[in-house]
Amino acid sequence: QTVVTQEPSISVSPGGTVTLTCGLSSGSVSTSSHPSWYQQTPGQAPRTLIYSTYIRSSGVPDRFSGSLLGNKAALTITGAQADDESDYYCVLYMGSGISVFGGGTKLTVL
Amino acid sequence: QLQLQESGPGLVKFSETLSLTCTVSGGSIARSFYHWGWIRQPPGKGLEWIGSIYFSGSTNFSNPSLMSRVTISVDTSKNQFSLRLSSVTAADSAVYYCARSAGGATYFDYWGPGSLVTVSS
Asked: I want to staple A37 with a disulfide (CB 3.0 to 4.6 A). Which of A8, A49, A91, B104 is the partner?
C-alpha cells in the first residue's frame, strides 16, 4: 500500500521561513498527484490551505505557498507566526477517486 | 456558505455498527463534480480518509481491510450522506469528519466540525 511521508516534527523561529514536505514511499510526487495541504489545531477540524499543488484556498494568507521540491510536494511558510503552530497534513490523490493522507507534521514556532 | 454537520451516537458497543450522518446546508449535495467523503482521526493520531460518494451513489474507498466493513450512502432528498462501519473495535474510536471533495475528488474544501465516536467494550 502506498504511504505518504511527512516529517513528524519541525520547528521554526518566529519570523522565519520553514518548508514542510510530502513524499511517496515509492515514486515521485507530481502535479498529477494534486497535492493539497491542511492545517489543524487541537480540537478543531482541518482547514484547507493549498490545493492542486499551488493554489491557495480562499482567505489563506500569501505567506503560505505550495510547490514541488525535487520529487516531493512542499508547503512553505514565510514569516512564521505564533499561531502557525499546528499540525499540517498533506493529501495526495492516487486516481480513481482515492486520496491518501500523510502522517502529519507538528510545527512548533519557538 | 456551505456547511456540513455530522450527527450520530457518541458511544457504540464493541462488535456493533457505527452510524453517522452528515447534513449539508447552504448548497445541494447533488451538484456535479463534487464528492462527499468521510475522514477519521483516532485520539492523538493522524487523519485517515475512509471513502467518498457521488450524488449518483458511486463510491470510492480507501484500504481494502476497512472497505469490507464500510458502507457510504447518500440521500439527495434530505441533502445528507451517511457512514456505516460494522463490527467496530476500540481501534475505530475516533473523531469522524465529513467533508466535501472538489477538483474531481482531489482535495477537500469544506469540513464538518467532527463527531467523536467511542467504542465501548
From this structure: A49
